[in-house]
Design a protein that fits this description.
alpha/beta; 7-stranded parallel β-sheet; 7 helices; oxidoreductase activity, acting on the CH-OH group of donors, NAD or NADP as acceptor; SDR_fam; Short-chain dehydrogenase; SDR_enzymes; NAD(P)-bd_dom_sf
Length: about 230
């Protein structure tokens, strides 16, 4: 047994579900969240018991604020790895009359969600713990060559900044923080489009997670470990 504990947000489908499968196989104690109740996340329920599931809406601050007490009630004492995976995507552009609303919603879930979730579980993180934010290359200002997707791009750029800030603030506690771009992954978020499966993407990302530490904390990585410009 590894004796380690991992908390994965958005663990009921796509990339999150593959992270759950991987760490269960690695004999971690896996706690996973979803917005919907345990009875409605059948794929996840087939992997972990209800005692390792937490209902969490990362777009709702009150839901995040309730997370520490839920972890305590489930007997969690510490978290070795937090994977902030939950996110959302709108394919917005300048022609959308609800551009503002879509941008705010994506910022709330994709940026503030991981930041507030990390803050909520700080007391469970210890020296040697790691925080991983699943981001996107679409959040790289230097790499943007196609425009559009304003809300998603801006939310991930802001998440990258939050990652850097967290790395600095948590360094004295011995906690490492990294942002990882999974690639264009075939999931429900991308309507099944992409150049890699969620399983294969996660197989690469877990190697990046393994190598994350004090020397490279605060970096923005591709799924293969290469550093992406902010």
């Amino acid at each position: 047994m590894s004796g380690k504990t991992v908390l994965i947000t958005g663990g009921n489908r796509g990339i999150g579900l593959e992270f759950v499968k991987h760490y269960v196989q690695q004999q971690y104690k896996v706690f996973a969240t979803s917005r919907t109740p345990y009875a409605q996340v059948q794929e996840l329920a087939a992997i972990i018991p209800i005692s390792q599931h937490l209902q969490l809406d990362t777009g709702d601050e009150s839901s995040i604020d309730a997370l520490p007490s839920k972890l305590k009630s489930l007997g969690v004492e510490s978290i070795d790895l937090l994977i902030n995976n939950a996110g959302m995507l709108y394919s917005d552009n300048l022609g959308d009359n609800k551009l503002r609303e879509m941008a705010i919603q994506q910022f709330t879930v994709n940026t503030l969600g991981p930041l507030l979730t990390t803050r909520a579980v700080l007391d469970y993180l210890k020296p040697g713990s790691k925080v991983v934010n699943i981001t996107s290359r679409m959040g790289s200002i230097e790499d943007n060559g196609s425009g559009k997707y304003y809300g998603y791009r801006m939310s991930k750029t802001a998440l990258n900044m939050a990652t850097k800030g967290l790395a600095i603030d948590l360094k004295p506690k011995g906690i490492s923080v990294g942002a990882i771009h999974p690639g264009f992954v075939q999931t429900g978020m991308t309507s099944g489009n992409g150049d890699i499966t969620a399983h294969d993407s996660v197989a690469l990302m877990v190697q990046v997670v393994e190598k994350l530490g004090e020397s490279n904390s605060g970096k923005f990585f591709g799924r293969d470990g290469t550093v992406i410009p902010y």
